[in-house]
Amino acid sequence: xxxxxxxxxVELIKFMLEKDGHEIVTAGxxxxxxxKVEGEKPDLIILDIMMPEIDGYxxxxxxxxxxxxxxxxxxxxxxxxxxxxLFALGSNIVAFMEKPFDPKGLRDKVREILKV
Length: 116
What we know:
Layout: E1 2-3, H1 7-19, E2 26-27, H2 30-40, E3 45-48, H3 56-65, E4 74-78, E5 93-98, H4 103-114
Parallel strand pairs: 1-2, 1-3, 3-4, 4-5
Helix pairs in contact: 2-3
């Protein structure tokens, strides 16, 4: 699942990962992510922090509160590098990448996490 309010970022990541054979579900904000996540049960969430309605920090906190979503690995993708410390306690955070991000680096990280 790719969660970001910047449509260009979502489309780039979606295109890149679909080329690798992944099914991609997208959400344009945190509220939409939380609505979709339990039904979709993604293997991985690529999560932006700065979004309207519900930010990524709150999304991750809510994911941690439920048994069904607690173990979903999350890659934090954000322009706010100083946000890293806020996520240090999240056991589901597997990577932290700053925007602008290296698409190949993100692709390699997804492969590593999903053991593809």
